[in-house]
Write a structure and sequence with these properties.
This protein has 140 residues and is mostly helical. It is 66% helix and 0% strand. The chain contains five helices and no strands. Helix 2 runs antiparallel to helix 3. The longest helix is centred in the last third of the chain and has 29 residues. It is elongated and about 50 Å long. The two termini are 19 Å apart.
Length: 140
């Protein structure tokens, strides 16, 4: 996510969006950033409460499948929070390239993090995770 924010920062100004260059729009971007941070913290706290692993590199260490709270709305609330933070940042940067970076982040995180995590969880909790996937969407 930090790489995406750096890209947004360094690419700003190439394709500015005049419509988004108003103070009220920047305020909306800030609200999105705060909402994204809040979602990340709520999801992380819920994971800690249930002693679920927060290490995205080792999903096989999961001992519990969370499907309540924010996990009843999104299978990936932490990544969703990150995307909301990036969207808020893109609004503040007011540049088309910033929104393209958000799309690249979503594609990258889906392909190289979420899909492998889900394969691991399906292996670890076959019936429960399959039912969960039918009930709750990957993003929202």
């Amino acid at each position: 996510m930090m790489l995406a924010l750096l890209l947004m920062y360094f690419l700003q100004g190439f394709y500015p969006l005049a419509l988004l260059q108003y103070r009220i729009v920047s305020l909306l971007g800030g609200v999105c950033i705060l909402a994204g941070i809040g979602l990340v913290f709520v999801a992380a706290r819920q994971m800690r409460q249930h002693q679920a692993t927060l290490d995205p590199m080792h999903p096989i260490n999961s001992t519990v499948l969370l499907n309540a709270g924010v996990f009843a709305v999104s299978r990936n609330p932490i990544y969703l929070g990150m995307v909301i933070i990036l969207l808020g940042s893109a609004v503040i940067f007011a540049d088309i390239t910033a929104f393209l970076v958000v799309l690249l982040f979503v594609r990258y995180i889906t392909r190289y993090q979420i899909e492998p995590e889900e394969a691991c969880l399906l292996e670890k909790f076959p019936a429960d995770f399959a039912a969960y996937c039918e009930q709750v969407r990957r993003w929202v």
